[in-house]
Write a structure and sequence with these properties.
Elements (H helix, E strand, L loop, with lengths): L2 E6 L4 H4 L7 E7 L2 E7 L13 H4 L6 E2 L8 H5 L1 H4 L7 E2 H7 L1
Parallel strand pairs: 1-3
Antiparallel strand pairs: 2-3, 4-5
The structure holds calcium ion (CA) (2 copies).
Length: about 100
């Protein structure tokens, strides 16, 4: 029997906003096979406050690499957007713009 998995995340975010950690699924039996629809969103990263450049820049080279941002979950997940010139590192000015 054919099984189809369909993940819907962005369409139902509003419906799940009240309980953001709740991942739900529904199984629908169809003549063509079983359809499993899963929706929800993972829990947001904990609020760590604004990242402090000097604390993240472990090698003190004036740039933040992706690895150096691992301790700040939100900045780490948003790295490509914070890296305004897309050179693979975040400068102090880029971090200030991102904040
Ligand atoms: Ca660095
Ligand atoms: Ca950059």
């Amino acid at each position: 029997m054919k099984t189809i998995h369909l993940a819907i995340s962005s369409l139902l975010l509003v419906a799940c906003a009240a309980n953001a950690e709740d991942i739900r699924s529904k199984t629908i039996e169809r003549p063509e096979g079983t359809l499993i629809v899963t929706w929800g969103q993972p829990a947001p990263p904990p609020d760590q406050g604004r990242p402090v450049f000097a604390e993240l820049d472990r090698n003190n080279d004036g740039q933040l690499t992706l690895q150096e941002t691992e301790s700040h979950a939100l900045l780490h997940s948003d790295f490509i957007f914070a890296d305004g010139n897309r050179n693979g590192v975040i400068s102090r000015a880029e971090l200030e713009r991102w904040n």
